[in-house]
């Protein structure tokens, strides 16, 4: 087991350190790298889709491969890129913002990451073993339950494993935020990012079980001969749609709420103003989370639920626009009267407002149940959800990364390159997706492999493809910026943005134990309060003492690997019962690791007071 | 309801935008160029929602631009510390209540339209037409139970009256969408039957799509709605009712084709009335708008299709029926001369359906 105090050098030692780490800051790095990698894979899939649709009657890829491409693009971007990148931010920031030394369950934190990574890898292995899943990221039965080959099996097993990781992560943050806040950090003094992480974790806790159930039913239908979705044997295919969207709609808010929190912190910091209407913002967040569970059937207006159900869900959907509007106006009034600095983080946040407002507009339009009979499953919907997920979540991730990069990696991302990356992405985004609203209304359904000459859809699609390549350029500039910053930029100060919350009271990057002394929080924006009173740092809440730290562990990695191996066994036992050996080996490894964890005491270690004084703050 | 909406419409400055939009999209495909009751109603609803939402967007952008210009940090202001306002209760109430009112304004026509389009009047009494629609990978079957007519791919309806559709699927979920006449509705497998209605204003041949991912050839599962006058419709019905599936073709090649058809194709493809279709019903095939919904309607394409259907619609279920090229030619001759009705897509006013 690695002991973080003993600094080992060398690549091997570093890899071992990361595989066994339970430090939330290092787990954040892992989430960032893995999520970023999947983001690039998903982006590549998007480009292939756009090349196929660049001109009518195109044959760039075959219809079957195209369906795999759209399925994997959606699945990858939602589950393997957006969610882990959000977890990267949550891990990097939340414990620092609430004045904690780590999350409540560091071991589970690591387990959550490795489950996600092995689940994601399992899903992507399908490319090399005879075909990826091809029933859309929504995986509607019976198309999915009867899809030939093993593609959908990979979807089921991969998401089941990755989903368990997400659920664990959500529970962990819930407990962390409830139990680990520093003295004085009452709920109504928590920074907005912590608040939105809190609500997001609640959503994860209640939404993911619905997906888990759906995936289990699908798994038994495909692998063990049950007939939950098979109408000829008395099953019901629509149940999948309900289960999926009871999970799927809250999932949308799981993706968007954390970046709402990040935007709140960013607007406030770069306007040098306290967040306008803090309690209204908190209230709006809670309301969005609550209403998020009441609207799932607006994805199903054309399923034939009848006018009564459709009307109820139409009205509840429109209701969500109200708390979202509250947020937009409070952000605008946070800037009102402030002193706005156009840093790159702020630029992304400013780009977000008009973009997301358009996404919200089309959201209300889609919520109008009858009109949805025209919009549904067309490019209008594609345009809408990219406006909210790219214009909201991805813009938010870029903003948050520029904002917290110094806290994560100790350096400020180059601002000039940041500006240079923003514009092609921003312009490319609107070029790609704005026109798609019209393509949809002009009669182009989504998930169409091709369209014909003479349908009037060629120009719009060409523009859209050009835009996609501009977005790719923006992403490449960002990647270059990451490398450039790592090599050329100087070390960042503790507080490069004149920040307001606790994380900026720590060095960039913070020491592995975060706070030498637990801080005392005296109000909203605790660091700002101290600064305004002329103090340099935060008032500590305790005298300097020994710090209890958890040991690292390889067990989370082994447990996840066990499930990964067992996953193959489950998928291929349909063809050959010998594959049950893989199930046995994988589950054996899994349970043996669990047993070790349960029965072998691992009490962690202490950093002694004397060491803390000697080594000082900057020690990593 | 349609009355006041119709009157209000010109008031919206956004109708300018709609006119602009009407410039894009094909006449018989675009939801922005409604040619039927449902599409018209829904375009009105879209315009109302767009108008309300554009109002919100303009307000947001006005504040946004003002704030950005007025409060951007200028040189020499680096140390200026703005007043730390906590919030403002009246403002919060304003931007909660006004959106609620706006949404209520939108909710009323939304609910009205939702119920309007769900009209399921008892049909037997007023003699309205019912069509059973079945979605299949990757074609559409249309059965007229009261008239005892079956056909596939081209759905004939009369203009000016409501045609009720009872919809289901024989395999996976599909979605029936004719953008310029009405919205869409899913076809579900099993007993889970859905209904909707079509009411076309103008004669024409309208494009239909499958809108729910249903497999490899999802994007090729096109069909047409042929809207004709009531007289022409009655003519078509009586023509279709009088089909003689056994009729002997005139040319020798078509005669041989009929034999080959009976040997190789009839297991799945019916000519004449057959409510449950395994493969597409081929009645009146000579007057189809397209071959397999996507290829231009000529003999050459038909031969190519018969020889290798998978090349045009990957994953379709007609694979593996090997006929020689000569047989394919003969079968094509036979099918192309199946001219059962005088009412054809070409005879429809202002038709662009053959496109």
Automatic annotation (TrEMBL), chain A:
<feature type="transmembrane region" description="Helical">
    <location>
        <begin position="106"/>
        <end position="128"/>
    </location>
</feature>
<feature type="transmembrane region" description="Helical">
    <location>
        <begin position="554"/>
        <end position="572"/>
    </location>
</feature>
<feature type="transmembrane region" description="Helical">
    <location>
        <begin position="578"/>
        <end position="596"/>
    </location>
</feature>
<feature type="transmembrane region" description="Helical">
    <location>
        <begin position="192"/>
        <end position="220"/>
    </location>
</feature>
<keyword id="KW-0679">Respiratory chain</keyword>
<feature type="transmembrane region" description="Helical">
    <location>
        <begin position="154"/>
        <end position="180"/>
    </location>
</feature>
<keyword id="KW-1003">Cell membrane</keyword>
<feature type="transmembrane region" description="Helical">
    <location>
        <begin position="417"/>
        <end position="442"/>
    </location>
</feature>
<protein>
    <recommendedName>
        <fullName>Cytochrome c oxidase subunit 1</fullName>
        <ecNumber>7.1.1.9</ecNumber>
    </recommendedName>
</protein>
<keyword id="KW-0813">Transport</keyword>
<dbReference type="InterPro" id="IPR023616">
    <property type="entry name" value="Cyt_c_oxase-like_su1_dom"/>
</dbReference>
<feature type="transmembrane region" description="Helical">
    <location>
        <begin position="275"/>
        <end position="296"/>
    </location>
</feature>
<keyword id="KW-0186">Copper</keyword>
<keyword id="KW-0408">Iron</keyword>
<comment type="function">
    <text>Cytochrome c oxidase is the component of the respiratory chain that catalyzes the reduction of oxygen to water. Subunits 1-3 form the functional core of the enzyme complex. CO I is the catalytic subunit of the enzyme. Electrons originating in cytochrome c are transferred via the copper A center of subunit 2 and heme A of subunit 1 to the bimetallic center formed by heme A3 and copper B.</text>
</comment>
<dbReference type="Pfam" id="PF00115">
    <property type="entry name" value="COX1"/>
</dbReference>
<keyword id="KW-1278">Translocase</keyword>
<feature type="domain" description="Cytochrome oxidase subunit I profile">
    <location>
        <begin position="10"/>
        <end position="522"/>
    </location>
</feature>
<feature type="transmembrane region" description="Helical">
    <location>
        <begin position="308"/>
        <end position="333"/>
    </location>
</feature>
<feature type="transmembrane region" description="Helical">
    <location>
        <begin position="345"/>
        <end position="365"/>
    </location>
</feature>
<dbReference type="InterPro" id="IPR014241">
    <property type="entry name" value="Cyt_c_oxidase_su1_bac"/>
</dbReference>
<dbReference type="InterPro" id="IPR000883">
    <property type="entry name" value="Cyt_C_Oxase_1"/>
</dbReference>
From TrEMBL, chain B:
<comment type="similarity">
    <text>Belongs to the cytochrome c oxidase subunit 2 family.</text>
</comment>
<dbReference type="InterPro" id="IPR036257">
    <property type="entry name" value="Cyt_c_oxidase_su2_TM_sf"/>
</dbReference>
<keyword id="KW-1278">Translocase</keyword>
<dbReference type="InterPro" id="IPR011759">
    <property type="entry name" value="Cyt_c_oxidase_su2_TM_dom"/>
</dbReference>
<keyword id="KW-0679">Respiratory chain</keyword>
<dbReference type="InterPro" id="IPR002429">
    <property type="entry name" value="CcO_II-like_C"/>
</dbReference>
<keyword id="KW-0349">Heme</keyword>
<keyword id="KW-0249">Electron transport</keyword>
<dbReference type="InterPro" id="IPR034236">
    <property type="entry name" value="CuRO_CcO_Caa3_II"/>
</dbReference>
<dbReference type="InterPro" id="IPR009056">
    <property type="entry name" value="Cyt_c-like_dom"/>
</dbReference>
<dbReference type="InterPro" id="IPR001505">
    <property type="entry name" value="Copper_CuA"/>
</dbReference>
<dbReference type="Pfam" id="PF00116">
    <property type="entry name" value="COX2"/>
</dbReference>
<dbReference type="Pfam" id="PF00034">
    <property type="entry name" value="Cytochrom_C"/>
</dbReference>
<keyword id="KW-0479">Metal-binding</keyword>
<keyword id="KW-0408">Iron</keyword>
<feature type="domain" description="Cytochrome oxidase subunit II copper A binding">
    <location>
        <begin position="126"/>
        <end position="239"/>
    </location>
</feature>
<feature type="transmembrane region" description="Helical">
    <location>
        <begin position="90"/>
        <end position="111"/>
    </location>
</feature>
<keyword id="KW-0186">Copper</keyword>
<comment type="function">
    <text>Subunits I and II form the functional core of the enzyme complex. Electrons originating in cytochrome c are transferred via heme a and Cu(A) to the binuclear center formed by heme a3 and Cu(B).</text>
</comment>
<dbReference type="Pfam" id="PF02790">
    <property type="entry name" value="COX2_TM"/>
</dbReference>
<keyword id="KW-0812">Transmembrane</keyword>
<keyword id="KW-1133">Transmembrane helix</keyword>
């Amino acid at each position: 087991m690695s002991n973080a105090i003993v600094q080992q050098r060398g690549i091997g030692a570093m890899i071992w350190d990361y595989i066994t780490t339970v430090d939330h800051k290092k787990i954040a790095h892992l989430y960032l790298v893995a999520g970023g990698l999947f983001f690039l894979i998903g982006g590549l899939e998007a480009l292939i889709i756009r090349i196929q649709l660049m001109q009518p009657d195109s044959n760039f890829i075959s219809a079957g491969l195209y369906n795999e491409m759209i399925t994997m693009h959606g699945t990858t971007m939602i589950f393997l890129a957006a969610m882990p990148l959000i977890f990267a931010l949550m891990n990097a920031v939340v414990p620092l913002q609430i004045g904690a030394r780590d999350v409540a369950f560091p071991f589970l934190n690591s387990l959550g990451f490795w489950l996600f990574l092995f689940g994601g890898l399992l899903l992507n292995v399908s490319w090399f073993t005879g075909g990826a899943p091809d029933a859309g990221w929504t995986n509607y039965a019976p198309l999915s339950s009867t899809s030939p080959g093993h593609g959908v099996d990979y979807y089921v097993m991969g998401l089941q494993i990755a989903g368990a990781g997400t659920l664990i992560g959500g529970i962990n943050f819930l407990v962390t935020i409830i139990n680990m806040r520093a003295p004085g950090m009452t709920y109504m003094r928590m920074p907005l990012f912590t608040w939105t992480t809190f609500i997001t974790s609640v959503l994860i806790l209640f939404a993911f079980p619905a997906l888990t159930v759906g995936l289990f039913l699908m798994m038994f239908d495909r692998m063990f001969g049950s007939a939950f979705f098979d109408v000829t044997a008395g099953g019901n295919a629509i149940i999948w749609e309900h289960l999926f969207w009871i999970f799927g709609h809250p999932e949308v808010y799981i993706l968007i709420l954390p970046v709402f929190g990040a935007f709140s912190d960013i607007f406030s910091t770069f306007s040098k103003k306290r967040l306008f209407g803090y309690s209204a913002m908190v209230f709006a967040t809670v309301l969005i989370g609550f209403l998020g569970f009441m609207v799932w059937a607006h994805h199903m207006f054309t399923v034939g639920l009848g006018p009564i159900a459709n009307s109820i869900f139409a009205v509840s959907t429109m209701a969500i626009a109200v708390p979202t509007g509250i947020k937009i106006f409070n952000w605008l009034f946070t800037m009102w009267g402030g002193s706005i600095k156009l840093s790159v983080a702020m630029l992304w946040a400013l780009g977000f407002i008009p973009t997301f407002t358009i996404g919200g507009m089309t959201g209300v339009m889609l919520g109008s149940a009858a009109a949805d009979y025209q919009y549904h499953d067309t490019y209008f919907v594609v345009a809408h959800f990219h406006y909210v997920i790219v214009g909201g979540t991805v813009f938010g991730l870029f903003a948050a990364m520029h904002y917290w990069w110094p806290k994560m990696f100790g350096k400020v991302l180059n601002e000039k390159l940041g500006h240079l990356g923003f514009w092609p992405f921003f312009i490319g985004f609107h070029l790609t997706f704005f026109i798609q609203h019209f393509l949809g209304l002009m009669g182009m359904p989504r998930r169409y492999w091709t369209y014909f000459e003479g349908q009037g859809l060629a120009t719009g699609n060409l523009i859209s493809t050009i835009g996609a390549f501009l977005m790719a350029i923006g992403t490449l500039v960002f990647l270059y910026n990451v490398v450039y910053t790592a090599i050329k930029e100087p070390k960042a100060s503790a507080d490069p943005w004149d920040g307001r919350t606790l994380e900026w009271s720590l060095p960039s990057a913070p020491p592995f134990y975060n706070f030498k002394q637990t801080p005392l929080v005296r109000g909203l924006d605790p660091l700002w309060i101290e600064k305004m009173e002329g103090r340099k740092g935060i008032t500590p809440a305790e005298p300097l003492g020994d710090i209890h730290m958890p040991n690292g562990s390889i067990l989370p990695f082994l447990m996840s690997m066990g499930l990964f191996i067992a996953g193959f066994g489950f998928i291929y036992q349909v063809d050959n019962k010998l594959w049950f050996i893989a199930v046995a080996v994988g589950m054996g490894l899994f349970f043996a690791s669990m047993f070790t964890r349960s029965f072998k005491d691992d009490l962690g270690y202490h950093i002694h007071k004397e060491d803390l004084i000697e080594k000082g703050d900057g020690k990593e | 309801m349609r009355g006041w909406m119709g009157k209000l419409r010109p008031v919206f400055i956004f109708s300018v935008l709609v006119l602009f939009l009407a410039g894009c999209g094909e006449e018989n495909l675009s939801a922005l160029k409604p040619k039927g009751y449902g599409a018209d109603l829904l375009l009105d609803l879209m315009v109302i929602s767009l108008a309300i939402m554009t109002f919100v967007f303009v307000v947001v952008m006005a504040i946004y631009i003002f704030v950005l210009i007025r409060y951007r940090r200028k040189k020499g202001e680096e140390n200026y510390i703005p007043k730390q306002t906590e919030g403002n209760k009246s403002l919060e109430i304003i931007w909660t209540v006004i959106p609620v009112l706006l949404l209520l304004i939108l909710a009323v026509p939304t609910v009205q339209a939702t119920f309007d389009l769900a009209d399921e009047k008892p049909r037997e009494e007023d003699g309205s037409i019912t069509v059973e629609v079945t979605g299949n990978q990757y074609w559409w079957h249309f059965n007229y139970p009261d008239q005892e007519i079956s056909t596939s791919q081209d759905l004939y309806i009369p203009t000016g009256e409501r045609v009720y559709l009872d919809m289901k699927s024989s395999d996976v979920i599909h979605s029936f969408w004719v953008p310029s006449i009405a919205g869409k509705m899913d076809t579900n497998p099993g007993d889970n039957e859905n209904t909707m209605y079509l009411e076309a204003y103008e004669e024409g041949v309208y494009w239909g799509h499958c809108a729910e991912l249903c497999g490899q050839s999802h994007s090729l599962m096109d069909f047409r709605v042929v809207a004709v006058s009531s007289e022409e419709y009655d003519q078509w019905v009586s023509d279709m009712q009088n089909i003689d599936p056994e009729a002997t073709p005139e040319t020798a090649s078509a005669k041989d084709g009929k034999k080959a058809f009976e040997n190789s194709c009839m297991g799945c493809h019916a000519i004449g009335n057959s409510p449950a279709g395994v493969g597409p019903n081929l009645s009146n095939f000579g007057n189809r708008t397209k071959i397999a919904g996507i290829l231009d309607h000529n003999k050459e394409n038909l031969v190519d299709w018969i020889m290798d259907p998978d090349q045009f619609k990957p994953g379709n279920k007609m694979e593996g029926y090997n006929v020689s090229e000569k047989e394919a030619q003969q079968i094509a001759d036979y099918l192309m001369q199946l001219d059962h009705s005088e009412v054809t897509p070409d005879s429809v006013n202002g038709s662009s359906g053959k496109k």
